[in-house]
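EI: anyone free to look at a 376-residue chain?
SC: sure, send it
EI:
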Amino acid sequence: MKRKSPDDPERGEVDLKRNDRSLYSHASRQTSHDGSDQGTSPAYSTATPNYEKPQTPLKKKKHNFTGVSKLAKYKLESKLGEGTFGEVHKGTNKETGEIVALKRILMHHEKEGIPITAVREIKILKQLNHPNVVPLTDMAIFRKKDESGRREQTEVYMVFPYMDHDLAGLLENPSANLSLSHIKTYFQQLLKGTAYLHHNKILHRDIKAANLLIDNKGILQIADFGLARGIEEDGRDYTACVVTRWYRPPELLLGERKYTSAIDMWGVGCILGEILKGRPILQGTDDMDQLKRIFSLVGSPTEETMPGWKDLPDANKVHFDHYKGRMHIDFDDCDPLAVDLLSKILVLDPKKRLTAMDALDHDFFFTEPAPARPEE
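SC: here you go
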């Protein structure tokens, strides 16, 4: 089962490889958090086979969704977990023997049909196909009579491949002592999946360790798209009540409603810190405590480090001491390049926060030890 985090909210590749940064092969386009073109930046030599850069552009491929089946196609087994939007069971495809995970959609008011959150999740997942994004392979339907025998009830399940672990559970296991090579490969896979989502204008809005699934081959996949939505081009307001608190960026905690894919990257940074330390790094007890923990780690906001923060809706509710930041103290026992990468992702100003594509180009992934192959 997934670890329960506090305040859960309601809810195509080019194989570029390099070693020497001075060896340029061609220029690739980069995009900002809001999807705008930022010009060119260098891509690098393909001379060294041990270092991989994710494929770009990250175009959508034909998805894995097969259609709608009857639940009788599957044998339901143990319950794996339960959340706000549904419960998850382990199961077996009776026809193929494949082990799957079946997420039952909870319909609190059946007359109103499937909840909009589930409709949005299904729609998004049917469009996606990437090795580091969990695929929706089937929808399973079960119809039965209610207790009176007069009214038909419907149960709807989303079907996914079964994954052996989630990252939160893996990090809680005392025997799971991850090498730097394995830290690199897991974080690289997270960045590849995140880059794919953002390239295709999808906000996940609940990036956290419990939503990162890992199989016994070492493949990591981003899961639980219950809060995901497409990025609109009209600059509309979104709800600020997204992202589990420990992974929620400062702008959301201050009430920002016009946000970008940078909110996902804050969670990605929190996960890097969590992998390095073996525990969540910002365990706030409420929103104000969460902000204080953030400011203690990265420094208090100023007009230079977080322009316009005083104008955010909830800024007048915040009272805190002046913090200089202590990231390099808290992480002094960690790999220096990992800490440098972390410091460039956990940035107060969302416009200066690294994008997933920028993070994949960091020296952390191109120095010894190389990222482990997933099966290693």
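EI: The two ends are 25 Å apart (CA to CA).
SC: 👍
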